[in-house]
Amino acid sequence: MSQQGTKQRVDDEFIVDTEDCEERERAFRERGTARPITVYGNPVLHKECRDVTVFDEELARLVDDMFASQRAAEGVGLAANQIGVDLKVFVYDCMDDEGVRHVGVVCNPVLEELPADRRVLDDSNEGCLSVPTAYAELARPTTRWCAARTSTASRSRCAAPATSRAASSTRPTTFTATSTSTGSPSATVRMC
Ligand SMILES: CSCC[C@H](NC=O)C(=O)O
Predict the structure, then answer these.
(1) What gap in Å lies between CA 38 and CA 19, rounded to an integer?
(2) ipTM of the assembly?
(3) CA 70 to ligand 1 centroid distance, Å
(4) For 134-179, what is each residue's pLDDT tens digit?
(5) Domains detected in the chain
(6) Residues 97, 184: contact at Cβ < 8 Å?
(7) How many C-beta neighbours within 10 Å does residue 176 have?
(8) Where is this region: Disordered (predicted)?
């Protein structure tokens, strides 16, 4: 992405998580360093993580490392505590059911249950990088909602892609997923 393109995106405050996926993901991971993935039993995986309250360069470096780690582990999603940091941050890089790649970063997500009449369960095989070798059929809604708050306390929502593979961008210092309706996941990621 050109400098101008980057500037434009920051000015617009939002990026669309299906756009410029290759460039955005590469930029993150090339700045980052892959860290070891924490495994079940590590205390950082067994307690609630802390809210992100400061959106600074340290957070940006964490996100870079998360993308680098996610790529090294051949993952499609990664939470900060999976590289040992107890902050509520996750990154994702995955394809939706239509084969569209999504790449993004979410801070302080809050899962919200879908009403029963909107749940469409997908019970495909699922694993976790922090529980190596274990896979199981796990029924999850095909569209999952999460809410996230920005540093300015505005609230927005996104449908995190439930399955697949892919990844993200320029250097955001604040990230928040927003938008979407039903159907295929389509989130935009705020860059403040
Ligand atoms: C539920 S989809 C993501 C599962 C896994 N990520 C973290 O453990 C990965 O394979 O990337």
Answers:
(1) 30
(2) 0.96
(3) 9
(4) 999 988 777 666 655 443 333 333 334 333 222 222 233 333 333 3
(5) 21-161 (3.90.45.10)
(6) yes
(7) 31
(8) 158-188
Radius of gyration of the chain (CA): 16
Atom of ligand 1 at shortest distance to CA of 74? 11
- Residues 42-74: tens digit of each pLDDT: 999 999 999 999 989 999 999 999 999 999 999
Distance 7 CA to ligand 1 centre (A): 32
Give whole-number Cα distances, 53 to 46, 49, 58, 87, in Å.
21, 12, 12, 10
pTM comes to: 0.74
Residue 129 alpha carbon, nearest atom of ligand 1: 8
